[in-house]
Amino acid sequence: MNRVAAVLRRNRGIEIKTRGELEAMRAAGIVVARTLAAIAEAAKAGVSTADLDEIAEETIRAAGAVPSFKGYHGFPASICASVNEQIVHGIPAGTTVLADGDLLSVDCGAILDGWHGDSAVTLAIGTVPAADQALSAATRAAMLAGIEAAVPGARLTDISYAVQRSAETSAAADGISYGQIVEYGGHGIGTEMHMEPFLPNIGKPGKGPKLKPGMALAIEPMLTGGGAETVELDDGWTVVTADGSRAAHWEHTVAVTEDGPRVLTLPEGS
């Protein structure tokens, strides 16, 4: 789509897509889902995160797409691979070899015909502690709650509130005080990977722009098994928990439609 047309069709800075354009985003989302499935199958003890990055790049390019992350503001890889206390933006490396009991969050993006898809999963490597399983499940549940709130007529922070409340509900049920990351959150997505609006993972409902059909958002909560304070490492990318607690990250690209939220990064046929 012509870049000038994209700007003209924004709603308060939020890009509005036609149904055909959402279908194009769905095609990109299928590439991302296929890539994450390949990574999930390969992610085992003894495998390095660089090995997983190679699988991601091969899978994305075999589909005729381009990795969204590689070269983005200088990021050197096709996926973010964040292990244990790493929350987001972990850089894959041959020296980072997965071990039994690790918790691995993988964030992946692909560009197909000019449209972006973006999704993340948290994977258990071998047998992980029950608390880490609960952490990942709580983060995924928070994402799903946010997705359910992405309906026409709602406000942006209705999604934020749904994510927050779900995390709090899981914390009460699990007996774990999950840390809710506030510095990082979701975002608009479409002809660019990161677009307006920024989507906080915590907040009061009823604030921000009204959601309209044609908007697309990456909904991505991040929770920790401890505190919410974060530290960025010297590599300028990797974000870790300040207290060393483990973290989980789940994400889907979601379109707001007249029929309700449509997840664009589900596996094909889902």
Give the helix/strand layout.
Elements: H1 3-8, E1 10-11, E2 14-15, H2 19-42, H3 49-62, E3 66-67, E4 79-83, E5 86-88, E6 103-112, E7 115-124, H4 130-148, H5 156-174, E8 179-180, E9 186-188, E10 195-199, E11 216-219, E12 222-224, E13 230-232, E14 239-241, E15 247-249, E16 252-257, E17 260-263
Antiparallel strand pairs: 1-2, 3-6, 4-6, 5-14, 6-7, 8-12, 9-10, 9-11, 11-16, 12-15, 13-14, 16-17
What does this structure look like?
By secondary structure, this protein is of the alpha+beta class. The protein contains 5 helices and 17 strands. The strands form 5 sheets. It has a 5-stranded antiparallel beta sheet. Strands 3, 4, 6 and 7 form a 4-stranded antiparallel beta sheet that branches. Helix 2 packs antiparallel against helix 3. The model is unreliable at 1-11 (pLDDT under 50).
